[in-house]
Design a protein that fits this description.
Blueprint (H helix, E strand, L loop, with lengths): L2 H12 L5 H9 L21 H14 L2 H5 L7 H10 L8 E9 L5 E9 L8 H9 L6 H8 L10 H10 L1 H17 L5
Antiparallel strand pairs: 1-2
Helix pairs in contact: 1-3, 1-5, 3-5, 3-9, 5-7, 7-9, 8-9
Length: 192
């Protein structure tokens, strides 16, 4: 199964609350590039389909957080895990565009090469934009909303006190942030 098929399979098996079908229809629509978008301009997943691949990777990492369940006693249902991990980066929908720049090829000749650039038509932040998009289709629990909002952890532009407080109040926030970093730096890093 490719990453799009894996995403749809996990989504349909686990996310059943009212509005979930409408959100999936939007993600599959011609007006949405979720399944073809990159995940970044030049870092992890900076290629077509990188966003859906990253989303599935984060889901797999979050599901495998046995230390969280076995040692810390935290337990989340499959729907919450699927929602927070698969949908945490919806803020990147229709966010990247392809542009061209001049670069030398292996023969030392100049040629136009494509690269991803940002074209943010909804500048609403990162995690909060994902929460905003999801909330247009279905309700999130408070913990799900905070987990998605603060999934960037201390690497984002957020007030550090707020990140720390969110991690303290809503443990899923920290678990999602760690799963996001694990997928980014261990599974999707340029070296791998």
């Amino acid at each position: 199964m490719n990453f799009e098929e894996q995403f749809i399979d996990i989504y349909q098996k686990n996310i059943t609350r009212p509005g979930a079908d409408k959100l999936l229809n939007y993600l599959l629509s011609d007006g949405c590039d979720f399944f073809t978008a990159p995940c970044s301009t030049k870092y992890h997943g900076a290629y077509e389909g990188g966003l859906v691949e990253h989303s599935v990777n984060v889901c797999n990492c979050l599901k495998e957080r046995t230390r969280v369940t076995d040692v810390y006693g935290l337990s989340y249902d499959d729907e919450t895990i699927a929602i927070t991990s698969l949908l945490h980066d919806l803020c990147k929908i229709n966010f990247y565009t392809v542009d061209y720049r001049n670069a030398k090829n292996e023969r030392g000749e100049w040629e136009k090469v494509p690269y991803y650039t940002i074209n943010d038509s909804l500048p609403y932040g990162h995690g909060e934009k994902s929460v905003y998009i999801i909330s247009g289709f279905m309700r999130l629990s408070r913990e799900e909303a905070f987990a998605i909002r603060y999934h960037m952890g201390f690497s984002g532009c957020e007030e550090k006190y707020n990140v720390s407080k969110a991690f303290e109040m809503f443990p899923l926030s920290l678990a999602l942030s760690i799963a996001d970093m694990e997928a980014t730096f261990y599974i999707e890093s340029k070296e791998n």
